[in-house]
Amino acid sequence: MAINIKKSLRRSPLRLSLLAVLSAVAISLELLRIEFPFPLAPFLKYDLVGVPLLLLAMISGNRDALLGATVTAVAIFLATGDPIGASMKWLAEVATFVPFTMIYNKSRVRATLAIVMATASRTAVMDLANLLVTPYWLMFFAHACSAYVECLKTVEVLIPVISIFNASLALIYIAIAVPLYEYMARYLGSQLWGLR
Fold first, then answer.
1. How deeply is 85 buried, as exposed, middle or buried, from its count of CB atoms within 10 A (0-12, 13-18, 19+)?
2. Using CA atoms, how far apart are residues 115 and 177, in angstroms rounded to an integer?
3. Is residue 56 within 8 Å of 20, Cβ to Cβ?
């Protein structure tokens, strides 16, 4: 049975270490470009950046995960020079881990609800963000179209594919992060209590 790690991290130096290490893993996964093309639209890429951020949220809470996501987004911006891409990555990750960790616990019903809400949240937030922001990105950064209306129509056509991509990515993150969290809770639980 998993121990609630959050209590044991409240006053622990381990909390800062976990924040630093898991943020560094997220940044490394982004900068190393460990990614795979989404079969329906190869310009969309699966990555694992959200796994350490979701794990951080589950272990030490959303506040630390928000800080980790922000540090990761800043690193992405510094590496790419693309503030829109970095901001969209931040938004996608936050829209996934916040609802998930607010609902998740060991109960099967709550775990299922957490998965559904995290997936729906990421999908809805990113659909809206793509409709509002991506036409400008296509115009000013990608130079893919010259008029806003033309760019907006392109995004509108892609929204169903973007929805499937974001939903599947949320499910992948959850499928990896939850077993890691359960393992860490079992393995580190007693050690974390001693570090307070």
1. middle
2. 12
3. no
Residues in contact with 194: Cβ distance below 8 Å, sequence separation at least 6, in sequence order = none
Over residues 121-178, the pLDDT tens digits come to 999 999 999 999 999 989 888 888 889 999 999 999 999 999 999 999 999 999 999 9
Spatial neighbors of 16 by CB under 8 A, at least 6 apart, are: none
Instruction: Tell me, rounded to whole angstroms, the distance of Cα 105 from its chain centroid.
Output: 19
- Model-level pTM? 0.85
| Furthest-apart CA atoms within the chain: distance in Å | 61
Q: What is the pLDDT of residues 20-48, one digit of tens each?
A: 999 999 999 998 988 999 999 999 999 99
> d(Cα 92, Cα 124) in Å, to the nearest integer?
10
Distance CA 125, CA 122 (A): 5
Mention every residue, 6+ apart, whose C-beta is less than 8 A from residue 151. 134, 135, 136, 138, 139, 144, 145
Extract the tokens encoding 19: 């924040």
Give dist(CA 30, CA 82) in Å, integer: 13
Query: How many helices and strands in the chain, by DSSP H and E?
Result: 7, 2
Find the radius of gyration of the CA atoms of the chain: 18
Q: Kindly state the DSSP code that residue 144 receives in the 8-state scheme.
A: -
